[in-house]
């Protein structure tokens, strides 16, 4: 019986239903509260744009909610785990299950299976909904909550290098020879790396080679003089292919699309460490929901009348939140090249899986 993780169909369905209801409830509460707080800080900026009103606020909510769901779904699974197990413990249902011969792993098996299904749904949701909502929201924020750009392939806050010189753009729209930049700044530096001139323009188009600035304003650092002109070509070493590579945003690309971007980086010898870390994390991130029942399982075992149930719940919550802290820190180290991408994405998961399994075994009795 100990090797049969689902000895009772009725018990499995009961625990799974109990767990999924609490996951949905906790996720709804977290998303509603956080969305309300987000609107308090953002609604003024949205409504300050002429013509924006309630419809634009609803647009923002529809784009922001998928991001909140994706980010806080694992937290919801953790809280649902603790609440479910505390309830089962207080009602002596855990004692009844153990008296029937079930081990700790058999008690948790329905919760782990449910969490695994939630992880799969989370991955599909991220691929189909979150990436598209993030791309649209970033384009809208880049337009300062003005009219949402209708052209696909909008990238915001792009930073490009041409030797010692730097070209930045608030938005890049289109692709190939039709690529257009908006709110452009060109920083020209001398061989020693010191800034010698700064040029600003409202837009730039591809001149083949280079990028033609229209209606520019130039500031010369040495003479402290400002001049204006109609057109100016800069960044002759920047091609449209390089622009598309430089402006890859892993948060707006799905798993398979990001894989193609990584291959393109490797083909031209570009550093792809950050993209690879995000690529692996698109798998380990949703799968973190599967880990939460194991980390919160400490709340299920031990007598409720011992007075330590609250302490056990706090320990389970601390283990879960410690995982998210370590996971974010490892991902940041992977982005900077401190950790290999595979290690940055998966080391926290397996580390806390071992910790959770150890705590579960030692606290079962």
UniProtKB/TrEMBL annotation:
GO terms for biological process: lipopolysaccharide transport; transmembrane transport. Pfam families: LptF_LptG (PF03739). It is found in: Cell membrane. GO terms for cellular component: ATP-binding cassette (ABC) transporter complex. The chain crosses the membrane at residues 20-40, 68-87, 107-125, 283-303, 309-326, 338-361. It is a multi-pass membrane protein. Its main location: membrane. Keywords: Cell membrane, Membrane, Transmembrane, Transmembrane helix. InterPro entries: LptG (IPR030923), LptG/LptF_permease (IPR005495). This is LPS export ABC transporter permease LptG.
């Amino acid at each position: 019986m100990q090797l049969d993780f689902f000895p009772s169909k009725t018990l499995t369905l009961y625990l799974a239903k109990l767990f999924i209801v609490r996951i949905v409830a906790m996720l709804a509460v977290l998303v509603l509260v956080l969305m309300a707080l987000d609107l308090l800080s953002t609604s003024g900026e949205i409504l300050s744009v002429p013509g924006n009103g309630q419809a634009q606020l609803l647009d923002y909510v529809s784009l922001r909610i998928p991001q909140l769901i994706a980010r806080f779904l694992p937290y919801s699974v953790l809280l649902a785990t603790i609440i479910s197990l505390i309830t089962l413990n207080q009602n002596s249902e855990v004692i009844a299950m153990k008296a029937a011969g079930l081990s700790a792993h058999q008690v948790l098996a329905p919760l782990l299976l449910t969490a695994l299904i939630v992880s799969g749904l989370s991955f599909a949701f991220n691929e189909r909904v979150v990436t598209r909502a993030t791309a649209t929201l970033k384009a809208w924020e880049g337009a300062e909550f003005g009219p949402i750009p209708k052209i696909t392939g909008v990238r915001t806050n792009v930073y490009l290098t041409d030797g010692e010189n730097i070209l930045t753009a608030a938005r890049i729209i289109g692709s190939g020879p039709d690529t257009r930049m908006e709110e452009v700044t060109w920083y020209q530096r001398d061989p020693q790396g010191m800034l010698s001139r700064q040029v600003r323009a409202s837009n730039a188009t591809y001149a083949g080679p280079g990028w033609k600035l229209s209606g520019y304003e130039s500031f010369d650092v040495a003479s402290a003089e400002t001049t204006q002109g109609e057109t100016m070509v800069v960044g002759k070493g920047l091609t449209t292919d390089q622009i598309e590579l430089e402006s890859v945003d892993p948060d707006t690309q799905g798993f398979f699309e990001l894989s193609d971007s990584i291959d393109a980086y490797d083909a031209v010898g570009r550093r792809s460490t950050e993209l690879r870390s995000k690529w692996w994390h698109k798998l380990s991130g949703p799968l973190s929901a599967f880990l939460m029942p194991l980390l919160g399982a400490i709340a299920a075992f031990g007598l409720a009348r011992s007075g330590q149930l609250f302490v056990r719940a706090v320990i389970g919550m601390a283990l879960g939140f410690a995982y998210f802290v370590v996971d974010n820190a490892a991902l940041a180290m992977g982005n900077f090249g401190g950790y290999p991408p595979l290690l940055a994405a998966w080391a926290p998961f397996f580390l806390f899986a071992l910790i959770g399994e150890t705590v579960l075994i030692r606290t079962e009795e």
